[in-house]
Give the backbone structure.
Amino acid sequence: MTEYLLIFISTVLVNNFVLVNFLGLCPFMSVSAKLETAMGMGLATTFVLTLSSISSYLVNEYLLIPYDLEFLRTIAFILVIAGVVQFTEMVVHKTSPLLYQILGVFLPLITTNCAVLGVALLNVQKKHGFIESAIYGFGAAIGFSLVLVLFAALRERVAVADVPEAFKGAPITFITAGIMSIAFMGFVGLVK
Amino acid sequence: MTQLCLLQGGIKPDEHKSLSNQTLIVQGKLPPFLILPLLQHIGAPTEPIVKVGDPVLKGQIIAHCKRKNCSLTISAPIHASSSGTVIAVEPRAVPHPSGLTALCIVIETDGQEKWIERRPLTHYSDLAPDVVRNHIANAGIVGLGGAGFPTHIKLTHNSYFIDTLIINGVECEPYITCNDRLMREHPDDIIAGAQILMHVLGGVKQCVIAVEDNKPEAYLALSEAAKESVEVLQVPTQYPIGDERQLIQVLTGKELGRNQLPASIGIVVHNVETIRAVYRAVLLGQPLLSRIVTVTGNGIEKPQNLEVLLGTPMHVVIDQCGRQDGIERLIMGGPMMGFALPNEDMPIIKTTNCLILSRADEPAPLQMPCIRCGACVQVCPINLLPQQLYWYAKAKDFKKARNYHIFDCIECGSCAYVCPSHIPLVRYYRYAKAEIRANLREHKKAEIAKQRYEFHTFRMKRDQAEKEARLEQLKAVPKVDKEAIIKAAVKRAKAKSLSWS
Amino acid sequence: MMIATVGVLGGLALLFGLLLGYAAVHFKVEGDPVVEQIDAILPQQQCGKCSYPGCRAYAKAIVNGEADINQCAPGGELDILTLANLLDRIPKPLDIKCGVEELHKLAVIDESTCIGCFLCIQACPVDAILGAPKQMHTVIAQECTGCERCITHCPVNSLSMISVPLTTSTWKWPYPVLLPIGQNSMEPVS
């Protein structure tokens, strides 16, 4: 039990996928301008990550390994992820057309989010079981969403502040992300 | 009897009250012209019931509410402050921050001050509260603390049970001393007015008069005049304890939301001068024709309080007090919540409690960028976040401003007072509120326009369809056989000619 | 080996294809609610200054990506900011080609020159002009949105636009500007 808790905390805080492993930076930078958008993106990514983490594990365990097809791992995982993302897109379009409109191309781009493929491959590398894979994927997604939401809140305040002309837009965003990353380094050593 | 709670936030600015509260209230001079705007209160403007050339008596109603019924709309009638002749009903400059004009009735005074027949309700306690309330309404009494809400509206609470009447003698804003002098010189009138109101509110048992502790003479005078069931309390001197909701919070500990009426918790609050006006209306039969105005500031020779007739142009009042050289600014109201006026020709209206004239002594401090010190947050009496409201109002992000409860702001100016960067915060909030209100108005108009447009499109389609249907019908009618008709006509003609011959 | 590869990949693809096909039917979206939300923000003057025939057409164009959010002149800067907020885009100043932001205007008919030709009544998108052929026409001021579509249709130039004067109830506090040095310190704090 504590093992699962440890996995969860380590993926959310200590080894946060965005700020420590620097994966999934594309949606992190582009979708975090508004809080509502960021929350929507976080939810969508959580859905995708958890599902694809589980499905990738199942595909790897019951299709690839028994038939000696480990070399197909990357392609198979991408196939799984693409399918899940398409499904998620349809769900988002139905439940919140505004979010669908705002996210635009970044919703299908979750397919190429290196965090999603990263989670799937890391699960294999760390030889996680079924539940561990699920928690690892879910934890990664929660960590991603947490950072996304925090960053969006920061960016909203920075947007109305007196930023010098040369720093407006992308420069101050990257500086803020860098400072956040340094802050998250404080979690190192939390989980032995 | 009443436990006092602390006021959160607030400031203690320099009072400057000793400039004007040392002398007795003086009668204002009768001006040659009286300019009476039709809107001197919060609510709907009145409609004139006199025309150019009509003679008027002192105390005569010259502009009334809709259909002469004060309960139809939120309104209060306007009376002629002195006898004379109506010489104009036209737009004139009115004391409004915009400097725009509004419709006014201009009376040329004849100097005789002839009264209309006065009908006091001497035995008001035998009359039904509604009768007295109607009398107060017809006397044109509005909140004289500066807000100008028609008093009779605050007395019609059929759905709420009122158990406390709070009389606001706090006067927390610097420079203003009109309530102070009134309480010192006419405490009996105030107590009598309180008793009238207690009767009108349906037998209210508890009445509290709140006075700030920087007015010990007023407190003593009122305590001596007070009768049973009227309690006089001292509240700590702090700005803005005089605001209705802040005062209720200090006296009872209960916080009221922006949309909650004090009546919903059984409380009604009135200003001391309003109470005195009620006394005059009911026991002396005099409608609201004058009010006490503090004329002060370093641009005035003799700062003092005057009882001025409503409609007196401000320069008459200022001349009476003596003006000094180099006057730069005229402010109506106090230094925190007042606004600057462009000239001195505007009239004194029901909500003019103070005029501050100032010379150009020191240059204004330069406005600097916000340093996010948070001093404004500490002094906000409503517990809002003035810093966030400032950022969002500046960025014109009105959705966020509403989320941070900008409409709960009472524009007291405490935040702007403490700002180390001298940012005029309240201007940003006023701007944001005005824009949001205008936006809501535009939105409503757009909704109606959209419905009309949709109906217009529908009507076009329907007319087109009807036209086509008619054409189809015409085609469906069997073709008229012209040949047969001509033959039949020729036959008839031949038959006729045969019958004649 | 080959068969296993093709089989596994093909099987996966088929499985996901079936799932997505089912989802496409089950999660079908009717209409476009985003267009409704954009239309609710626009001022509904149907003036055509944005180069689209009406506010709804402009809303659709924004959703399709054909139009930018800064083309509505009657909506002005505030509507551009609201749209930018809604759609998470960067606000831009109003496109000069589409007009300038100005105070509300009303159409007025000069009754001495009106010939009762009915052309302006047919042009008004909100039916704000009252009249019948060969009868005097007049604009119902309350319903006129100031879209200016009627002006060009009048053959005798008896239609003109007048600015609605501000009153004390429609006046708005202006956007605060930095106080110049030297202004009196007795200016009210607010």
Summary: The radius of gyration of chain A is 17 Å. The longest helix of chain A spans residues 35-64.
